[in-house]
Amino acid sequence: RGLLAPGALLGLDVPPPSPQVCTCFDVREDRILATLQPLTGSPEARLVGLQSALKCGTNCGSCLPTLRRLVAAR
Predict the structure, then answer these.
(1) How far is C-alpha 30 from the geometric centre of its chain's CA atoms?
(2) Is residue 18 within 8 Å of residue 53, measured between CB atoms?
(3) What would the 3-class secondary structure string for 10-71 be?
(4) Full-prediction pTM beyond 0.85?
């Protein structure tokens, strides 16, 4: 109940939620970036590693442009 009260979270350091990238498997950007960090190799190899680990980009494919952008930026 206390958390639902107006102003209940004021003054607390609550980070904003990470944007959802893959809706098919509910994968958020922070998980993608954490998974990408240790991956090495070409961007395509890193994308395949990301897809193997999190399954994002393997169902409908609508998140692939965002995944490719994130892979290229890291």
Answers:
(1) 4
(2) no
(3) CCCCCCCCCCEEECCCCEEHHHHHHHHCCCCCCHHHHHHHHHHHHCCCCCCCCCHHHHHHHH
(4) no
